[in-house]
């Protein structure tokens, strides 16, 4: 097995979510892990598959206009205006894919923290404070954060559940000096494997002259080492264009966005 590192692309929120899901469901070479970093055409927020649309709208009621899309994974509301977003798919049967959700979450975030440290960022994994949390399968883009300015991730005042980057949870990546959350993620498992959608909040990096290209290379190499394989730059896969278009259309509809 190898880790296929795909080219970076920018797209709409619906297309980004559709491509991530197709990376899990329909990737042409099912025997390889796959990784991609991507951007956004315009301001965007994504939210977890199980979140209530009324809650999402309440939290984003004062945010600037932008795209909103339900993710195929769980977790909370994520502000993508100043983040660095990525997706990782580990195929069914790999040892890391078979781990408990908390263990895969920790392993991937350890790779991320190490890559940040190589760029001079004082990054760390938020530790588990008790034996109980080490056996919990709670995973999220942060599950119990503090509310800040809606659509923004600074200045906490009140606890609100379901908004990312406002309080770090166990095994999130944090700034070891300030305690501010740097990265969170959400997961989805099915018969094809594990989809891991992750986000790094750029303002929390607190580093001058940060080299994102070098970081991406270091991150993918550390992921490959954790998967006991090698990272290989790989051309964009030949997805079925009709299937891509149909899924993008589905993810753009009120039926999907207002599913719950």
Walkthrough of the structure:
This protein is an alpha/beta fold and 260 residues long. It has a single domain (3-257), classed as BirA Bifunctional Protein, domain 2. Helix content is 28%, strand content 25%. It has seven helices and 14 strands. The strands form three sheets. Strands 1, 2, 3, 7, 8, 11, 12, 13 and 14 form a nine-stranded mixed β-sheet that branches. The model is unreliable at 134-160 (pLDDT under 50).
Distance between the termini: 38 Å
CATH architecture: 2-Layer Sandwich
Going by CATH, the homologous superfamily would be: Bira Bifunctional Protein, Domain 2
Total DSSP helices: 7
Order of SSEs: EEHEEHEEEHEHEEEEEHEHH
The major beta sheet can be summarized as:
9 strands, mixed
Principal-axis shape equals globular
CATH class: Alpha Beta
Count of DSSP strands: 14
Proportion of residues in extended strands: 25-35%
**Structural class, from secondary structure content?**
alpha/beta
Mean pLDDT: 86
CATH topology: BirA Bifunctional Protein, domain 2
The helix fraction, in percent, is: 25-40%
Radius of gyration: 17 Å
Number of domains: 1
């Amino acid at each position: 097995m190898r880790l296929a590192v795909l080219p970076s692309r920018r797209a709409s929120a619906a297309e980004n979510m559709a491509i991530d899901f197709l990376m899990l469901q329909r990737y042409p070479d099912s025997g390889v892990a796959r990784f991609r970093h991507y951007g956004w055409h315009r301001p965007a927020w994504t939210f977890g598959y199980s979140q209530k649309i009324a809650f999402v709208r309440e939290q984003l009621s004062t945010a600037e206009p932008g795209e909103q899309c339900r993710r195929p994974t769980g977790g909370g509301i994520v502000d993508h205006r100043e983040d660095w977003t990525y997706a990782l798919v580990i195929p069914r049967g790999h040892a890391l894919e078979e781990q408990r959700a908390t263990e895969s979450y920790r392993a991937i975030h350890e790779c991320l923290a190490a890559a940040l440290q190589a760029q001079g960022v004082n990054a760390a994994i938020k530790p588990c404070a008790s034996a109980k949390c080490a056996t919990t399968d709670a995973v999220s883009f942060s599950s119990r954060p503090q509310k800040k300015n809606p659509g923004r991730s600074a200045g906490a005042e009140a606890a609100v559940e379901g908004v990312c980057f406002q309080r770090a949870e166990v095994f999130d990546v944090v700034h070891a000096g300030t305690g501010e959350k740097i990265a969170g993620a959400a997961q989805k498992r099915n018969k094809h494997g594990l989809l891991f959608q992750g986000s790094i909040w750029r303002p929390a990096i607190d580093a001058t002259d940060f080299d994102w290209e070098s970081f991406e290379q270091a991150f993918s190499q550390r992921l490959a080492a954790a998967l006991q394989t090698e990272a290989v730059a790989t051309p964009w896969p030949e997805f079925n264009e009709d299937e891509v278009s149909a899924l993008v259309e589905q993810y753009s509809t009120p039926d999907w966005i207002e599913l719950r």
